[in-house]
Design brief:
TorD-like_sf, mainly alpha, 226 residues, 12 helices
Length: 226
């Protein structure tokens, strides 16, 4: 599985999706290929978006347990059925609920004065339409694309960020895709803590976030090691 396809699968995991589409990617060889691509991304010393060298292909395949907890690995090997995914999303991926854990960057990053004119919005977090939302909306428009209706209120949703990174890779804009991910994924450390605080079992999504943090570590090692 190519890196752009892996990013697209990650995108779907956090997005509203039809039952047939979820069954297509979460069962059989499709999901196995995704897990293998995730493992290689965290293990290999290659650059995201580039084909691995013959030496890298010959290396010992480290299991996912080398990078994730046993609970996360078990959850990833048994992705939720569609109704389970839908129920989890209804409880946690809807704004305004006590147990909301929306994967939207603005909710976990402080605003600057550029993001809003109201004094209360400056340097605040936990609000929609922060700097990242404005950036994503403008970038999508500059690329000649449109924000899907389901993300109109939150263009910095992780699903849309990952999908846009996949588009950049497919378009041959590999360096741009890596820079984009290094800038966009930093908030996932705070989001991971939010998932850990949920009363529900969120290990599947925590495992996915840890895969994304592994990608972030690869494309921006200086930030991770600072």
């Amino acid at each position: 599985m190519e890196d752009e396809t892996m990013l697209s699968v990650l995108s779907v995991c956090f997005a509203p999706v039809e039952e047939a589409e979820w069954k297509r990617i979460s069962t059989g060889s499709a999901w196995s290929d995704f897990l293998d691509a995730a493992r290689r991304t965290m293990q290999d010393g290659r650059v995201l978006g580039e084909s691995p060298s013959p030496i890298a292909n010959a290396r010992r395949r480290c299991p996912l347990q080398d990078f994730l907890s046993i609970g996360e690995v078990n959850a990833l090997f048994r992705p939720p059925a569609y109704q389970e995914k839908k129920a989890f999303a209804a409880r946690h991926f809807v704004g305004g609920l006590p147990e909301s854990a929306l994967p939207v960057e603005s909710l976990y990053q402080p605003w600057t004065a550029a993001a809003g004119s109201s004094p209360f919005s400056r340097n605040a977090g936990g609000l929609y339409w922060g700097d990242s939302a404005l950036y994503m909306r403008d970038l999508i428009e500059r690329l000649g694309l449109q924000v899907p209706p389901e993300f109109s209120a939150c263009p910095d949703h992780v699903s849309l960020e990952l999908d846009l990174a996949a588009v950049l890779l497919r378009s041959g804009m590999k360096e741009e895709a890596r820079l984009f991910l290094s800038e966009r994924l930093a908030w996932l450390t705070a989001y991971r803590l939010r998932l850990l605080a949920l009363e529900d079992d969120a290990r599947f999504y925590i495992g996915l976030v840890d895969v994304l943090m592994g990608i972030w570590a690869q494309v921006s090692p200086m930030e991770m090691n600072a």
